[in-house]
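DM from R.C. (forwarded with permission)

"hey, sorry to bug you on a friday — could you get me a structure for this? deadline for the figure draft is monday and I only need the backbone to look sensible"
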Amino acid sequence: MPVGISRTRFLQGISKAKPTRKKLVRLKEPKSFPGCLTDEQVEILVNASRRLRDKLIILMLNGTGLRKSELLGLKHEDLGDCGDNFIKVVKRVNPNGAIVKGRERTIPISPCLLVMYNDYLIYEYPEVESDYVFVNIWEGEIGQPMNPRVLNTMFSRLSKKTNIKIHPHLFRHTYATRLLKAGYSADRVKHLLGHSSIQTTLDTYSHIVSERDLIKVVEQENKE
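My reply, with the result:
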């Protein structure tokens, strides 16, 4: 204890100091990883689909990590052209019940995906005025935004046809896993997935995030 300061005064000084609160990133026990698809499985699913729309849905989910609601909420204005390869995720409530809850963001995509999108518009898209990318073409009210139930039915049918257990969200885990294994930072993956917190990304993918990157994320978050 410093000379000239009584024990009582020293303790009083500590008690009067205002505590500081920090936002801490806590490394929880990793969740049971929901798994992901291999490139071969994605190719099998694409080849098993007869329609361009269904092939485009598979490849778009696989290449962007979009949530189901974000996919079905896409409008034509959200897609760039062949010189500007991106998808914009915009928060909106859609007439098909697809509510976009994730963070708004821009996701880079392959030019090949936009080529397939253009082919889909030429060869399958109905002759109706619609702002939405994915609409009813063969069943239901033609031209209306595709309902989430229709998407679930599509993947259920593909699961039976290919013996690959598949649902839309599995592509999201596949996308994130591929990026992290390729060396993308957890913070970048968090942005592309639209997570509101890095904690969500770490809770699901901590077994993939490199130790160096994990330490960097924790240190950065604890400074804020």
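R.C.: lifesaver. Residues 36 and 170 are 6 Å apart (CA to CA).
me: no worries. The chain is about 50% helix and 5% strand.
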